[in-house]
Amino acid sequence: MPDSLRVHARRLDYKRLFPSLLSSHQTFLTLIWTAGFILVALWQKTAVDRLLTYHDQRFFPPPRPIPKLRRLAFNLADFGAVGDGVYLNTMAFERAISEIRKRGGGQLNVGPGLWLTAPFNLTSHMTLFLAENAVILGIDDENYWPLMPPLPSYGYGRERPGPRYGSLIHGQNLKDVVITGHNGTINGQGKAWWEKYRKNRLNHTRGPLVQIMWSRDIVISHITLRDSPFWTLHPYDCQNVTIRNVTILAPSSEAPNTDGIDPDSCENMIIEDSYISVGDDGIAVKSGWDQYGIAYGRPSTNIVIRNLIVRSMISAGVSIGSEMSGGVSNITVENLLVWNSKRGIRIKTSAGRGGYVRNISYQNLTFENVRVGIVIKTDYNEHPDEGFDPNALPVIEDISFTSIHGQGIRIPVRIYGSREIPVRNVTFRGMLVGITYKKKHIFQCSYVHGRAIGKIFPVPCENLDVYDEMERLVRLGTAQNSTDTDYDA
Ligand SMILES: *[C@@H]1O[C@H](CO)[C@@H](O)[C@H](O)[C@H]1NC(C)=O
Ligand SMILES: *[C@@H]1O[C@H](CO)[C@@H](O)[C@H](O)[C@H]1NC(C)=O
Ligand SMILES: *[C@@H]1O[C@H](CO)[C@@H](O)[C@H](O)[C@H]1NC(C)=O
Ligand SMILES: *[C@@H]1O[C@H](CO)[C@@H](O)[C@H](O)[C@H]1NC(C)=O
Ligand SMILES: *[C@@H]1O[C@H](CO)[C@@H](O)[C@H](O)[C@H]1NC(C)=O
Ligand SMILES: *[C@@H]1O[C@H](CO)[C@@H](O)[C@H](O)[C@H]1NC(C)=O
Ligand SMILES: *[C@@H]1O[C@H](CO)[C@@H](O)[C@H](O)[C@H]1NC(C)=O
Ligand SMILES: *[C@@H]1O[C@H](CO)[C@@H](O)[C@H](O)[C@H]1NC(C)=O
Ligand SMILES: *[C@@H]1O[C@H](CO)[C@@H](O)[C@H](O)[C@H]1NC(C)=O
Ligand SMILES: *[C@@H]1O[C@H](CO)[C@@H](O)[C@H](O)[C@H]1NC(C)=O
């Protein structure tokens, strides 16, 4: 029987049944049953509608309109890009950015989706806008990553001699570049890189996620950067850089060298209102490596780092060095919370670096469950090659710590200067931290000159001059050039 007839037959059956039901004494019950059935059906339909709406909001939110931040705006999808996580969109990025370059600037909108790509270059006067749920995915096959000459102030790739991999998102000699969005993500898929690095399968230094070199007027805000192969965000020899309200994530262990932000030979920079949890230093201010950094001679200076929450189980919340051969000065770090970390803040250097770390001011630091709060280390002996000059001694001076709080700290302070590299003019003003390790010498110093002002707990090392809250001298340091430390701690 053809389908149409079969349906017809069923309808006929139903019609034949219906009058017999009406004529029976069960008519009333039938009507009640039918009404009940309709009500249940209606209720189910609304419930399903409600469920769909709920899903809509959770998984398919109405796209937030993308603001127009430049006169010209383009959509990546209009350049042949496919956001399925499989299609390789390098050409689409290159075509779009080349169009922006030709037009003298513009905005590139990356909509929701997984946009797999190999490394590409930015251009001047451009805004890269990452919509909510937009993810730029770095391809994790190194054959797609171009090699670049080593950074001049490092002489070498940082971990292998010779050239290095470029960064996923790269820029050189640019002006006026913005990377922002509705908290879209740039994901470096670092896992494959970390494993290859550990198994010694890479012949070149891994690339950063975002690296901007020799550029000025850069703003990076309201985005998430995650799982970089190497350092996450690396501004190199740049001026006027603002990094605001970013989230930087990498696994807290087994993600080697995934520093959050590495301002390197940069001037006039601000990093604020951000959350960083990574597998190495949260922030590491640098300026080149030994003889190469000395020759390049570009300091990192006038940098403000504030209102951050940082976790670094492997290293420190905010570091300076160890590569600081071009000098680091005029740095302010304030309103910083470091939690569940190995160290709170650290300055690291060694003989051979040359340069200086000078006029560094830390204010309102909070450490929660941090093994060592404040560290200055002068024997970080990691050199590019045998060509370094062991007599190139860094200068460390004019460092101040104001209002240090915290709890769950094992060693609050460990400042190890040396005869060659003494730490000069350190000031502590107000410190109260809860300690977990009740030994005598937990405020540790060697070759340190400076003062402790006001209430300081735990009791400062003997090396420091002690002043009361009114800055009246209480006692002079007894042993500036001695070692008041307990190396077992
Ligand atoms: C980006 O620009 C740099 C400098 O011009 C160049 O060396 C590099 O190959 C470019 N990278 C890509 C992916 O085109
Ligand atoms: C941005 O996204 C990250 C990762 O999904 C999330 O942890 C963070 O809270 C988000 N930030 C904002 C401001 O929504
Ligand atoms: C590394 O170099 C060796 C020797 O030149 C070569 O055999 C190997 O294929 C290279 N590995 C990679 C991942 O490029
Ligand atoms: C710094 O960069 C921002 C953003 O591009 C720009 O608005 C500002 O004028 C620049 N400031 C200086 C002093 O160059
Ligand atoms: C980042 O920006 C978002 C959205 O504007 C805001 O809700 C959030 O509080 C900001 N985060 C920080 C740490 O300022
Ligand atoms: C540090 O700041 C002071 C005062 O603003 C300025 O005179 C000095 O030149 C700055 N140092 C560097 C290296 O820029
Ligand atoms: C130290 O740096 C701060 C900025 O961080 C600056 O205002 C101050 O003038 C500098 N002091 C000296 C002596 O350079
Ligand atoms: C100190 O920093 C914390 C964040 O770690 C912040 O909540 C607090 O307001 C800051 N205190 C002052 C006096 O700025
Ligand atoms: C010591 O450092 C402080 C800043 O931490 C600075 O104000 C002061 O001038 C320095 N003292 C000497 C003698 O250089
Ligand atoms: C401590 O040693 C430094 C050099 O290492 C020297 O300049 C300084 O005068 C010494 N201070 C004292 C009190 O001996």
Automatic annotation (TrEMBL):
* Protein name as catalogued: Probable polygalacturonase
Q: Which Pfam families match?
A: Glyco_hydro_28 (PF00295)
Q: Which PANTHER family match?
A: PECTIN LYASE-RELATED, POLYGALACTURONASE-RELATED
Q: Return the InterPro entries for the record.
A: GH28_Enzymes, Glyco_hydro_28, PbH1, Pectin_lyas_fold, Pectin_lyase_fold/virulence
Report which gene this protein is encoded by: LOC113742210
Query: Which keywords belong to this entry?
Result: Glycosidase, Hydrolase, Membrane, Transmembrane, Transmembrane helix
What does UniProt give as the signal peptide span?
Answer: none
Q: Name the source organism.
A: Coffea arabica
Any transmembrane segments, and where? 21-43
UniProt similarity note: Belongs to the glycosyl hydrolase 28 family.
